[in-house]
Amino acid sequence: MLVCRDGSIYTGVTTDVDRRVRQHNEGTGARYTRSRRPVRLAFTEPCGGRGDALRRELALKALNHDEKRLMILAAAAEPSACRKTSVRSGAQGSRRTTRQVKSSSRPRVPTKR
Fold first, then answer.
1. N-term to C-term CA, the chain
2. Looking at residues 77-96, what average pLDDT do you find?
3. Is the pLDDT of residue 111 over 80?
C-alpha cells in the first residue's frame, strides 16, 4: 500500500516493490498516483503468486480508508511485518509479489496528524 500526498491510499500488485514505488514517484506508475506524488510505501504483504495477489487486491479494494489505515498502523507497530515480501520459486526463478490497490471512490476520512 502506498500513502499518497493527499492522504489517499493506493494498493496494487508488483513483483518488484522498489522499482514500482520509484515509477509511481517519477509519474510513470498508475494514473491515480501521478497527481498525488510523492507517494510513500506504507505496507507490503506476501503472496504465493500473481493469482493470489490479484485475489487479495480485490479484497483490499473492498476495504474503506479507515480499515486500510488500521492495517498500515498495525504493520508499523510490528517492524518485522512492515516490509514483508514473498519469494516464489519456479522455472523463472524467485519473484517478489506484493499488492498495491487504489482507494475506493468513497469519501476520504481526514487523517489525524
1. 19
2. 46
3. no
pLDDT surpasses 70 at 104: no
Residue bearing cell 497527481? 35
Please list the residues that pair with 96 across neighbouring strands.
87
Cell of 60: 483490499
CA-nearest of 60, 20, 21 to 39 is 21
pTM here is: 0.69
Q: Are strands 2-3 and 9-10 parallel, antiparallel or unpaired?
A: antiparallel
Tell me how far apart the alpha carbons of residues 43 and 103 are, in angstroms, rounded to a whole number. Answer: 14
User: Cβ contacts of residue 75 below 8 Å, gap of 6+?
Assistant: 42, 43, 81, 82
As a whole number of angstroms, the distance between CA 70 and CA 104 comes to 16
CA distances from 3 to 50, 51, 59, 73 (A): 22, 24, 18, 12
Total residues found in the chain within this entry: 113
Per-residue pLDDT averaged across 71-99, rounded?
Answer: 56
Q: What is the distance of C-alpha 61 from the center of its chain?
A: 11
